[in-house]
Amino acid sequence: MDFQTDTEWTQRCETLTAELIERFAGQGLRPDNFGFVALREGPAPAGFAYRGDWRCYPCSLVKAFHLVHVLNRIEAGAVAEHDDLDRAMHDMIAWSSNTATNYIIDLVTGTTGDTRLEGAEFAQWRARR
What we know:
Structural class: mainly alpha
């Protein structure tokens, strides 16, 4: 990878990498089947790579943000863990599934993508989404 390294950024990213591997070990995440690249913009941009040379089909960047969002909502008690959610989180990242991503967005926003809404209900749905 071609970027500058920074000690503080590297330490933060190493901590995050270890947390992700530990948290998702039960779903099959292992140090040898995971890669992670994080770039920090700013006056002194820096980068970090964990197995950055690993060739794989990466999830869209936005899907990584949705994963962090749903994990935050789980920790806050706003979203309950269940088998479908676990499967959706896996498929969103492992296979870059748009269907799984939409399901997660629906869960964290309290909306649904398959119900026809009109009037005030539609306005409320748009505001929440």
